[in-house]
Amino acid sequence: MAWHALSPVRWLRPAAAAGALAAALAGGGSAGNLAAAEVSSTIPFYMPLISRQVPAPVGFTNESFEDRRWYTDYTHAGNQWPYGWTFHSTEQGETMPFPTKHQDGNIIPAMAGGWGEYVHKLAEQLPFDEQRGQPRGLIIDQWTVYKAFSAAIPQALVLSQVLTGTPGATMEVTGYILGETFDVPWYPHTKLEDDHWVASVQLGAAADTRYYVDMTQRYEVPGNERHWNRFVVAAGVPASGEVLLKIIVQQNWAGRTDFFIDAFHAVQHY
Ligand SMILES: [Ca+2]
């Protein structure tokens, strides 16, 4: 462990301190009395230098989707845009954020079929076995999870937010995404394409991008039997103090895929 010497500090010897404190209290406890009674004794004082300390909080709004001041987009089936985040979904015929996908060994364009459905799922809307802490839990943190899905069309969602930190620090963002599909391979195929869906968390130029074939092998919430994935990204904070965070989920095929997004968190360290 590294040790970091701070400037010597002035201490009161125990007996003198007791006397000074008594004098200070008798005199009304003013700092002036205490200073006047201080007996100097300079000793070196060492503190451990913890390399992953959190020097300051990161400016991050509604990271667990608990804020119920969402915007309801009635022109798109009542979709809910989470408070504090910038919402974007690709229109019908538009290239999705990951512009290509695989089909039988070929690479083809990944086009959106339109908007999916984007809603908050509240604890009171879920059965007991999907509550937080249950083996099939759909909420990781507190009382709300954000759900992006379509039961019909390819669709993509991008949630973004500018996080604020301390210039020169390294910011690290963690968060949880679950992808689940009801789709089955068409005969004679025996499996879905490896990139049946894509999920990505991006911070500045850093990205943690995962595909269906990988995500469905992971169980990263202890005690939860659903293949929740814990995403981690880290990036340096530039002089502006601002770092763009993006969460992308992309359903590449017609059919039904559900994404659940929850419990994002940011820290920074030097
Ligand atoms: Ca939550």
Topology, number of strands: 18
**CATH class designation of the largest domain:** Mainly Beta
Uncertain residue segments: 1-40
Order of helices and strands: EEHHEEEEEEEEEEEEEHEEE
Radius of gyration: 26 Å
Write the CATH fold name of the largest domain. Jelly Rolls
Taking the sheet with the most strands, its summary is: 5 strands, antiparallel
Strand order, sheet with most strands: 7-12-17-14-15
- The backbone outline, from C-alpha atoms, is globular
The level of helicity is: under 10%
Specify the CATH architecture of the largest domain. Sandwich
- Terminal Cα span: 16 Å
Percent strand:
35-45%
List of distinct ligands in this structure: calcium ion
**What do we call the CATH homologous superfamily of the largest domain?**
Galactose-binding domain-like
Number of domains: 2
| Structural category | mainly beta
Mean pLDDT: 86
Explain what the structure shows:
It is a single chain. With 270 residues, this protein is mainly β. The protein has two domains: 3-48, no CATH class; 71-269, Galactose-binding domain-like (Jelly Rolls, Sandwich), CATH 2.60.120. The chain contains three helices and 18 strands. The chain has helices at 14-26, 31-37, 212-215, and strands at 3-5, 9-10, 42-43, 46-48, 71-73, 79-81, 86-89, 95-103, 106-111, 117-122, 144-150, 155-164, 170-181, 197-203, 206-211, 229-236, 242-251, 257-269. The strands form six sheets. It has a five-stranded antiparallel sheet. Strands 10-11-18-13-16 form a five-stranded antiparallel sheet, with no helix packed on it. It has a two-stranded antiparallel ribbon with strand order 1-4. Helix 1 runs antiparallel to helix 2 (31-37). The longest helix is centred in the N-terminal third of the chain and has 13 residues, at 14-26. The radius of gyration is 26 Å and the shape is globular. Calcium ion is lined by residues 64-66, 139, 141-142, 144-145, 262-263.
